[in-house]
Amino acid sequence: MLGRSLRLSGGHGSIGSLLSYFCKDWNRRSIASQVLPTLPVICETNSLNSYSTGDDYADVNWDELGFGLTQTDYMYVMRCSEDEKFSHGELTPYGNIQLSPSSGVLNYGQGLLEGLKAYRKQDGKLLLFRPEENALRMQIGAERLCMHAPSVDQFVNAVKQTVLANKRWIPPPGKGSLYIRPLLIGSGPLLGIAPAPDYTFLVYASPVGNYFKEGRAPINLLAEDRMHRSSPGGTGGIKTITNYAPVLKAQCEAKAKGFTDVLFLDSVKKANIEEASACNIFIIKDNVISTPDTQGTILSGVTRKSVIDIARTFGYQVEERPIPIEELMAADEVFCTGTAIVIAPVSSITYLGRRVHYNVGELSQKLYANLTGIQMGLLEDKMGWTVELE
């Protein structure tokens, strides 16, 4: 892989020291018009032959692809200081970045992440799913954390460039997707608690398969009554990096007991369901679909939003409201949604030692088929959600 074969100066993988290596035949490549303006042309003996046609695949066993990090070729980087806006970014070979020990993200957790996917259609074209929604959510999170954020156009353009530069890592149709991880971090140094003096926006990608080891099999959740994911007035409603470390202990304990994941309750009454470690939850009772309203403690997922819209086009009543744990335990059907998991049916939920089993009904399967059909270009996108890349 090109990213692995490059030699980086400085020994620490500084982004500033990364070189982009391109051969003189680059202009003949179909992707050149998309990425060339941001990249210096430097001849190098390591050719991009495996990348030149745009149709070749990386050396990956696509049939055994799980949800783990696979290093790809390129990432996108853009920086700005506290007194300016983001303006110009560039693709660089994937590699380590250099941060001050006193950077805002390392000392005070000033950072946001996003997640979205690119799919390969049967005709070879590439699709993104609602990238502008991720861009807007990052802007909302940046305002909460006193950070500068890229514009929607800058965000989407960075994602497009990252996908096109890593095209050979996008799985064949039906074998998975390219998971894209945008990051916004306070990279500038400081000692006292304050917004960082400069910021870095970074996008990298990895091919992925199913999120859970069960694949598409129904999952089993443990409702956690001691530890909580977020609290009113906190940051549960934005996608800050600090939301995820607090769930690890509860998640590890649940997995040690054989559960797939943890479902968290509200931190005030400890009576209403909120979300799992990295996904939203829906219940179905008497053909009515319900999901917890976000209210600042629950992340407003892009998949969650899409599922609500699709269900309503099918004629279903969808309610966003507080849902007591007792109502969950009496539901007819339960499923979770998220970019990584898409739609995962729930087989059982255990709460205070009581385990309730659910049937995997037709509705969650219908929603899954419709959503993934749009995402993969198998169904007509009447919603205008997908962005096609040539």
UniProtKB/TrEMBL annotation:
UniProt record similarity statement: Belongs to the class-IV pyridoxal-phosphate-dependent aminotransferase family.
Short name of one Pfam family: Aminotran_4
Domain of life: Eukaryota
Alphabetized PROSITE patterns for the sequence: AA_TRANSFER_CLASS_4
CDD domains according to UniProt: BCAT_beta_family (cd01557)
Sorted UniProt keywords: Amino-acid biosynthesis, Aminotransferase, Branched-chain amino acid biosynthesis, Pyridoxal phosphate, Transferase
Keyword presence, Transcription: no
GO MF, one annotated term: branched-chain-amino-acid transaminase activity
Protein name: Branched-chain-amino-acid aminotransferase
Enzyme type, top EC level: transferase
Reactions mediated catalytically: L-isoleucine + 2-oxoglutarate = (S)-3-methyl-2-oxopentanoate + L-glutamate; L-valine + 2-oxoglutarate = 3-methyl-2-oxobutanoate + L-glutamate; L-leucine + 2-oxoglutarate = 4-methyl-2-oxopentanoate + L-glutamate
Spans traversing the lipid bilayer: none
